[in-house]
Amino acid sequence: MDFEITHEQRMLVETVRGFIKDELAPLEQEIEETGQLPDEIARSIFEKSRALGLYGMNIPEEFGGGGLSALETMMVEEQFGHTTDILIRRAFGNVYEVLLSCEGPQVERWLLPSVRGDRVCSIAFTEPGAGSDAAGIRTRAERKGDKWVLNGMKHYISDGAFADFFVVTAVTDPAKGHRGISMFLLDKGTPGFNIGRDQPMMGLRGTSHLDLHFDDVELTDENLLGTEGEGLKLALSVLGRVRLAQVAARSIGKATKVLQMTLDYARERVQFGQPIGEFQMVQQMLADSAMEISAARSALWQCAWEIDAGLDPRARISVLKVQGSETLGRVVDRAVQIFGGMGYSKDLPIERYYRDARIYRIFDGASEIHRGVIAKSLLKGGAQLFDPWGA
Amino acid sequence: MKVLVPVKRVIDYNVKVRVKADGSGVDLANVKMSMNPFDEIAVEEAIRLKEAGKVEEIVLVSIGVKQAQETIRTGLAMGADRGILVVAAEDVQQDIEPLAVAKILAKVVEEEQPGLVIMGKQAIDNDMNATGQMLAALMGWAQATFASKLDVDGDSATVTREVDGGLQTIRVNLPAVVTADLRLNEPRYASLPNIMKAKKKPIDEKTPADYGVDVSPRLEVVKTTEPPVRKAGEIVGSVDELVTKLKDAGVI
Ligand SMILES: Cc1cc2nc3c(=O)[nH]c(=O)nc-3n(C[C@H](O)[C@H](O)[C@H](O)COP(=O)(O)OP(=O)(O)OC[C@H]3O[C@@H](n4cnc5c(N)ncnc54)[C@H](O)[C@@H]3O)c2cc1C
């Protein structure tokens, strides 16, 4: 077992970290205040990042991506967690691996432009009546001759305002339940596809969360991603790695950054004639945060290693989804406590981290759903999750 | 033209330095090490000259422990072409003194025949600010230290130097030694493709014996101590209060 970080990995993380510190962090406060990242600034950070090869690093080189392993992807994703959702999207791209299922003309139309950053993709699964229950969607795609006709709606679709196209789930065969769901690639501007309101959220300022309406949207087979009826299967098989990256790794990165800020404050803030870091009750909070972050990171690296080794990572990804997001939740909560009134005040970004952190336990499968997955796997005999020596 | 850029592995500038308990020096075991920031500026300047078509090849040289290979790789990932690693110490605590470094560099220069040596004005670990000057003296070359601007034009270079009280512009004949000051440029990040390419760039490994140079120390460190702790400041409410306090303190 070798935990040594290679020099290449170190250099890469230094580049990403430096880029975030110099180019992105200075933009955060204004986005928080205005709720907007102006287009020309978005363009400029995208171009700078792309010139450094930092856009779409998770995608294999043959499609123009950075070709990072899962482990390296998690290392850079952890750094992404040091900045905000919208800045990550514009600078580094959430280029979803589900697009690697593109075939034939789809590759030129959707995959390659996404890796180049010329087109941006959002994922549209959730509906007002179907969140955790992703198979309970009502959006319907009906075959009519050689066309598909799409009707229904989605909501909370992240980055929908900026996105050029969407990966949409729809029922193609109502008789077949979750085996009757397929995925479609839907371009903005397609007749009958209307953008609804932008749902205001607790945090993640700068990122839009849209309603999408489909009224007799005509699509062809070229819009069908993967095999008809296997939409949910495809989602399950490829979105796990996204979840590990965008939720677990980013949570751990965010927690790390928040703990560093908390340590600095605990050293400097003096009450009763001494730095508050000298008080044992504060020390306990600091120690707990450090222990939880380091445990979560080790588990993250193990999970990434399993992906690179070709093992089935699904149950462990659920472990990390919960462990990462809940670690972040506890770490930011302690941070607010240790910062006291300053932690609650808008003069410091701590309250923003606190609000932004909350969604990590909900989206991409709420903690309860992933605990369910973990428990099911355990009961089916998946002892490896907690006992590497087990059967 | 070929440019030689010496690069040193030093304690990272972000690390909070700890003096060893026995006062023999600074603790370098298990701390983050990086390329000396002034050397990064020197590498950047060489790359810019190459991008401007004035330089064909950039050779990095590092003298120190084996791990200095990483320092060279960092420069290769920024865009330099190849490296020479002179393994002159086994103990990470051992520093090679400026004269020994300059003597080895002089031999490397004789072998490589660069038209220009660009190096950091000093290393941030012991702030000697001597190696560049010594190398120029050993070679009998022109030197332009503390450069904040460098223009290479044919067989001469125009260098703006940051001197006490202002800027001085000089012209030197090439070959020459130029040492980089803080404002010469802002070093780039290593891009992902360049980090990957750097793995394949060659690094030659040498020893001081290959150059016939004795690196044994000539200086003796008598004692290393922490700098005195700065006293906490005080925020005053008005100019009058400030003046009163300064008077009370006997400063004005
Ligand atoms: C900021 C934000 C961004 C989002 N971005 C996107 C996006 O880009 N694309 C997209 O498709 N969706 C997106 N979503 C939707 C998100 O994935 C869902 O909100 C999430 O899956 C939960 O669904 P729900 O909100 O309908 O909650 P519900 O499913 O109604 O859950 C409510 C509560 O019930 C619990 N619960 C539900 N079922 C069970 C069960 N079987 N056992 C135990 N407890 C259960 C849940 O854990 C939760 O606590 C986003 C949401 C937000 C808030």
UniProtKB/TrEMBL annotation, chain A:
Transmembrane segments: none
Occurrences of domain Acyl-CoA dehydrogenase/oxidase C-terminal (ranges): 229-379
Domain Acyl-CoA dehydrogenase/oxidase N-terminal: 6-83
Cofactor(s) named in the record: FAD
Keyword annotations of the record: FAD, Flavoprotein, Oxidoreductase
Location of the Acyl-CoA oxidase/dehydrogenase middle domain: 123-217
Matching PROSITE patterns: ACYL_COA_DH_2 (PS00073)
Protein family membership: Belongs to the acyl-CoA dehydrogenase family.
Protein name as it appears in the record: Acyl-CoA dehydrogenase
Source organism of this protein record: Sinisalibacter lacisalsi
From TrEMBL, chain B:
Protein name: Electron transfer flavoprotein subunit beta
Gene name of this polypeptide: etfB
Organism this protein belongs to: Sinisalibacter lacisalsi
SUPFAM superfamilies: Adenine nucleotide alpha hydrolases-like
Entry's transmembrane regions: none
Keyword Nucleus set for record: no
Keywords recorded for this protein, A-Z: Electron transport, Transport
Keyword Cell membrane applies: no
Family, as annotated: Belongs to the ETF beta-subunit/FixA family.
UniProt-listed Pfam families: ETF
Domain Electron transfer flavoprotein alpha/beta-subunit N-terminal: 23-215
